[in-house]
Amino acid sequence: MKLLPTFKSTILMIPSLSFKMTAAELMYKPFRRYPALFADNFDKSWLHKDFVQISDAFEKPAKNYKDAIPDDLLRKEMDGVYSFNVFNDVFLQMFNEEINHFYDVSESENIPVKRPNSMNNYGVIVNEIGLRPMITAFQQTYLWPLSRHLFPVEASQFDNHHSFIVRYRAEEDLGLDMHTDDSDVTFNVCLGEEFTGATLSFCGMFGAVNHRQHRLTYHHEVGRAILHLGSRRHGADDIQSGRRSNLIVWNHNYAYRARGINSWDRDSQYEQEEGIPSPVCLSYTHDRDYEVYKELPEAAKKQKRKPWCPPPGASTKDIMLKVDYTYGARIVLLYMLC
Ligand SMILES: O=C(O)CCC(=O)C(=O)O
Ligand SMILES: [Fe+2]
After folding, report:
1. Complex ipTM, two decimals?
2. CB 166 near ligand 1, within 6 Å
3. pLDDT in tens, 314-328
4. C-alpha span between 337 and 300 (Å, rounded)
5. Residues of the chain scoring pLDDT < 50
6. Which residues of the chain form CATH 2.60.120.620?
7. Which of 32, 48, 56, 152 has the most beta carbons within 10 angstroms of its beta carbon?
8. Domain 7-258, what fold?
């Protein structure tokens, strides 16, 4: 089970309270290219014109925001997954230059780089290098009104965020295994550059009967963001060529978490799966039955795997046994797991 903030720590962690400067932030400070990116402000002139229109809709006391926001500006990719243009070229150019500069300086000055998670070896937590205030300003002024409109419960308020860059290219990380985020609402915007492949695949919700059924494969576009609940299973498909980097903001709503709805209690929250999982939705990090369906990829061999999903009683065992003899020994393996 994941550790959750208690109600007490919730109160103590409201974002306006100061965060200590990290070593990385202190060391990088003299090298900053664009001081405006490190201020407690997100300049409206950095928004894509589509997002200005979306954002303006929330400034008016509209009774029905849906009518105020044209469908072509806010695209419903599927139930609970939305995409929209958000940043313009001015912002993208500045932000990318700053991040690339940080990577160079971190090497030459030996600045410690904190990676976003154990599955990502080339990203960086941007909150740790001084960009937290600007992202908080963006979150509170622009992202929250839209998120609350789309996800009234999970985005009733945003108290904090975990924000980071992910990066994929040949010889580095190729993709990101299927997972759910420690986020209530996830904002994920493509920063560039040229690439093929590197799509983002979505499956069902954490614990649901169809949590490993493929629902959507989304093609990233530079400057365009996708917004979804953190508890939806998703993963980045392997990049074929070029380089892709994205900025990801995991938005945290402590009041929502305190209600225990998103308590990530694996054993009690998983329902019996409705069918054989879609291959793209399998996770080599989390799924106990991965090898029943697929060979482990190279990336899995570098991990200390502790797979747990689906919990006993929630797997496809019964369905699987009826289906196919060609799986042979794999069925035995699956049977042993359940
Ligand atoms: O690469 C992407 O677009 C998604 C990355 C992701 O889901 C994550 O870092 O949590
Ligand atoms: Fe994710």
Report:
1. 0.99
2. yes
3. 776 544 443 343 444
4. 19
5. 1-16, 318-329, 331-338
6. 7-258
7. 48
8. Jelly Rolls (2.60.120)
